[in-house]
Amino acid sequence: MYQASDQYDLPITGADAATAAGYDAYVTEFLSYGSELRALFDIADANTHAPLINAHAAALHLAFEGAEGWEAARVYLDRMERHEGDATERERLFCGAVRAWARLDFNTARAALDELTVRWPGDLCAIKWGQYHAFNLGDAGALLRFGERARIAHENRPYAHGMIAFALEQNHRLNEAEEEGLHATEIAIDDAWAHHAVAHVMETAGRARDGAHWLDHCAHTWDRKGVFIRDHNWWHAALFRLTLGQNADAVSIFDKRLWGEWPEFPQEQIGAVSMLWRLELRGADVGARWEPIVEQVRMRMDDHLLPFHDLHYLYALARAGTGAEADAFLTGMRRRGELSDDAAGDVWTEVAAPTGEAIIAFLRGDKDKAAKTLRAVAPSLHRIGGSHAQRHVFDETIEACGGEAGFASGRES
Fold first, then answer.
1. Is residue 51 one of the residues assigned to a domain?
2. If 0-12 CB within 10 Å is exposed, 13-18 middle and 19+ buried, where does residue 255 land?
3. Domain CATH for 53
4. How far apart are the first and last CA of the chain?
5. Which domain holds residue 23?
6. CA–CA gap between residue 384 and residue 319 (Å, rounded)
7. 272 has pLDDT over 90
8. Is 114 within the bounds of a domain?
9. pLDDT tens track for 348-382
10. Number of structural domains, the chain?
11. What percent of the chain has pLDDT over 70?
């Protein structure tokens, strides 16, 4: 079994030089949030015997974060497992992480990537995947551990410092985060994750005008990026407008940038729900904008993959007035917790389900129950995943109930 090496001089089992070059192109697209990630599927289809490449193809499908992704990943997982015995130890660790991910064991996936990147910090792509899982698990400490490993072999390389910057911000180290983010954009002006990290700093520090100007300055680079980062950075741009009281501008960004590019994509769905939720908390009339989102969310009734996503789906269903659907969805969330006998199950049972109850109570007019329940879960709400800025909507919901915010976002008081 031949082995070519990637751009970090790490071997790829079953790859020749051309295949390794294709893999390197994927890594660059992944780290930069490029729009050509799907090219990896052709490479994997042409190299069914290469376990690492098929593991990454499976990971891309799983990162869709919907049931369709799990289905599409199956063929790549099968190939990965058939040839895993030929792989290097580093590759087997990555394969193990993807296998755990596919069975919804995100903690084991994160742990495998933790071990891999301690031993092989040159694998910047694995570091990025490690941060992905740390973020979804609400583990800010792990997010920073992975970020700091990027310094070991990748100081002053494109896209490494944006990863460090966001991890620092989520750990409340705002000055360092801004410095890292600005440095990242000096290295690579198109580092959209660094743009995002600096925006987080400005949002957390209450610098909405600076944040709006910053993202306006960066936005010209996003058209060549994938849907996720374009949607999400524009979401932050709209959030700054809301903070500045510019609701009409936020609605305009929603219409032009936040909905309609890829309605089937779960991240687009939760971003849209999140923005309409905030707009209505501020008294804005969003008209019929909920309708197409709810239609997409109805296709997620049986997913229950990530609690952060589910709470947004539940909000859309309850906001639509579909009482039976919202109640059934919440029942599915509870069942998801009951079927897991690990820490992930505890998150569903102890945090996500009560938060779901609060959402339904809020939209049915029982604001006292909503505020009481949200305040009770606030200290643990980081465990559902998402960023401080994304979770801040729960603080805003408490305030809309006439209560004092419980710092559900995880920000420092």
1. yes
2. exposed
3. 1.25.40
4. 56
5. 1-135
6. 21
7. yes
8. yes
9. 999 999 999 999 999 999 999 999 999 999 999 99
10. 1
11. 97
